[in-house]
Amino acid sequence: MGKWTRRGFISAGVIAGGGLIVGVAIRPGNRASELSKHVTDDDETLLHTWVKLDSNNVVTAIVPHSEMGQGVGTALAQMLADELDADWSLVKFEEAPAISEFANYPMAKGMLLAGADLPDFVVPTVDGVLILSAQALDLQITGGSASVRATGHYGMRVAGAAVKEMLRIAAAQAWHVPVDQVVARDSQLIHEETGRSEPYSAFAAAAAKMTPPASPALKRPDEFKIMGRDVQRHDLPSKVDGTAIFALDVRMPNMLYATVRRAPTFSGGVENIDDTVTRSIEGVVDVVQLPPAEVNALVGGFSSAESVAVVAEGYWQAKKGMDALNIQWRATENDAVSSDTIFAQFERDISAGVDRQSDASEGDLNASMTNAAKVIDADYRVPFLAHTCMEPLNATAVVEDGYCEIWIGCQSPLGFRQAVADSLGFEVENVTLNNCFMGGGFGRKSRADYAIQAAQLAAKVGRPVQLIWSREEDVRQDFYRPAVQSRFRGALDEVGNLTAWENTYAGKMEPAEAPLIPYTVAAKEIGYVASPTHVPLGAWRSVDHSQHGFFTESFIDEVAVAAGQDSYEYRAARLKHLPRQLAVLRKAATEAQWDIPLAPGRGRGIALQECFGSIVAEVVEVTVNDDNLSVDRVVAVIDAGYAVSPDGMKAQIESGIIYGLSAALYGEITIQDGAVVQSNFHDYPSVRMSKAPAIETHIINSGEAMGGAGEPGTPPIAPALANAIFNATGKRIRQLPIKNSVLNV
Amino acid sequence: MTLITVNGTEQKLQVDPATPLLWVLREQLELTGTKFGCGIAQCGACTVHINGVAMRSCVTPVSAVAGQNISTIEGLAPSPDELHPLQQAWIDEQVPQCGYCQSGQLMSAAALLAKNPSPSDGDIDDAMSGNICRCGMYSRIRKAIKLAAGVQQFDPALVDVGQGLTNG
What we know:
The complex is a heterodimer.
Chain A: H1 6-10, H2 32-39, E1 44-48, E2 51-54, E3 59-63, H3 72-84, E4 91-95, H4 105-113, E5 126-127, E6 130-131, H5 133-136, H6 147-175, E7 182-185, E8 188-191, E9 196-199, H7 204-208, H8 236-240, E10 256-262, E11 270-274, H9 276-280, E12 284-290, E13 294-297, E14 300-303, E15 307-312, H10 315-324, E16 326-329, H11 339-352, E17 357-362, H12 365-370, E18 374-382, E19 394-400, E20 403-408, H13 413-424, E21 431-435, H14 449-461, E22 465-468, H15 471-476, E23 484-492, E24 498-506, E25 523-529, H16 545-562, H17 567-573, H18 579-591, E26 602-611, E27 614-625, E28 628-639, H19 646-665, E29 671-672, E30 675-676, E31 694-700, H20 717-729
Parallel strand pairs in A: 3-4, 10-22, 20-21, 24-25, 28-31
Antiparallel strand pairs in A: 1-2, 2-3, 5-6, 7-8, 8-9, 10-15, 11-16, 12-15, 13-14, 17-25, 18-23, 19-20, 19-22, 23-24, 26-27, 27-28, 29-30
Helix pairs in contact in A: 3-6, 4-6, 13-14, 16-20
Chain B: E1 2-6, E2 9-13, H1 21-28, E3 47-50, E4 53-56, E5 69-71, H2 85-92, H3 102-115, H4 121-128, H5 138-149, H6 156-167
Parallel strand pairs in B: 1-5
Antiparallel strand pairs in B: 1-2, 3-4, 3-5
Helix pairs in contact in B: 2-5, 3-4
């Protein structure tokens, strides 16, 4: 594998990585002619894939990621604006349209070249180790906590620096002065000697004719002016007065509304529908049976089951019509599957160890186990989880004259566009996708099933259709965080040193490193058995880290207890080879005042996990009073290399903690008769205001490669909480959610 | 025909009287700031004021509010160029992430402050626990309410440690 270089990104051809990768970077020369028709108004000149500059000297960052709450536009705009030396008040951002020119090349490259495993949504574009250029066009994806660390670092900063250089050259030529005397500052070009000063926009046209420089100089951190500063998010004013347009808010003339129900056992289909009552309801327009659809799932392709939609003049009539339908679903081979049978299968498959695959293997495990002074073992389990984004899945589509336009909030606009085109049998050029604000994404909105349904309905009824899933459908037809069982054995010598770590779990997705531990151990064997079920799986905030963080950081706590040592000190003693991890862990303990004893009935727990390039430690404080659990406080420390937008990063960590806490306390999707039992927030609850702990987040800017922020806050919360409960009560939580334990949550 | 007053404007509606107010606002009146989240009064995304009281519009039949004063997020600001103090506090504390639940959060908070200008933490818990934020911005919402109310910010975590010291 080659090493990423700035030259590789921006120069012509750009076959970086020793020829292993083709067609994934910005292509030769200036793409303005191709792009300008999509993103420029008449008075604007397109300078670069990522930047436009209008006649009012306003710089617009064109952000190839979707806004699902993480403030991505603002952070990326900060990176661009800083390198460009733009006046921040003259910087705007907009999401790139779903056309191939804005495909997320930097993300694909960042994933490959940082040595990280490819996330599943990139896999369809990989043929062996090659990314095929044609398929790479489907990479406009938000996920893997990649916006800032890949697009921002490799895309926005380089773009900003390149554009600034082009503007300085253009000014120097116009003024007949040496380019090194032209200074760029606050969106003005200045020649101090002659006192000349003109806005960037004066040179936009001249700069647009140049080829971008191959290797523009980037700033050192001590030269940053806008990066590292708290700036107000651009999108918030519209989110406090109701004017932000989410997909659900799209209104079209003559629009119908629809709702849908899919076969509950995922693989089933329609045996018979009695729609007599439904069709008699005023406002109901049609009852439509929708075919199964191929959907990209986290573990390969997945064929979703048949569904039935009711189309009406309003959502309420559509819902009443749906409730009045009498649908008989076909029997399937999964009708007897339950959570109990699934966990029994995991238990059996882990015990049998057939075709066990190894993630990591070091030292002589058998010898360490045999010679151990003490061996402990434990089994951990987590359930399936739904995403429950606040905005239920929805999409609005118009299909006429061989052309489809769709309005949606999604994490993969180009992938969705392709999926819609395929489902209609259209060329992709005949599908336009408008990506709106997302009311949450968390991984769910990277699966195109709901887009396909909306497009098929619009094609069938010949009018614009807004498809709205009920919350019940949203809970019952998700692509779930997998249920997983994980079995451990740990060996200790006579002074409590960890000498062996053995771990086998059922079911693996990504990233590959999620189950690995950072701690020094003489021998380890970590691996998995495949134990597939019929339940569709997908990425859920932090993906496999969400379960493995709980497993490994709980079991290391058990090891420390077995060694009779402090669980923080025990971890720290085994991190001497990893100074970043050690610094994060230490700061968390210090900020949480780990060494100050707590009152009886209170407890502290700590956990550490590296996830998507960032290292996070969390300390949780709880009170347990008569088995009533209160989560009082969380102290979090993140080293993401460098925080471009510190307050934005803190907000992401707070968000990741509450999301993970909801799962740890309450989150459980159970399967009965092959189908999901839960249906809405009453039986799939979330943390609410009265249960939300105080959260403090501390940032370490280590200067190392940038990591993500959206996901890394989630994995440590469940183990830190479980460890705190043990510290307070002596009761070890080995299964989530905690509501199923003796504690009242 | 059903008559309702929304943000000060009288509206004549031809709808099934059982239709929840939420869908009348969103579809007939195109006031889309009020959101659909669950349909069963569990999440609070659809919160509006009916005669000044925070109510879940997804389970309120339009017939039940005939002749009453309804206000939505679109009517929260006192004028087009002025924000409600809570809206300003929401920006100052950078509360929203995805933003989808925030219309409902703001309407619940506004109803709270209207009847209780200096809420305690317990009052905030009581008034706001019907509103789910899946982005988990509860600590920012709490801070923003206190900022708008002009009450002292208060960090329970610090007190907890203090108790530990005293008792332990």
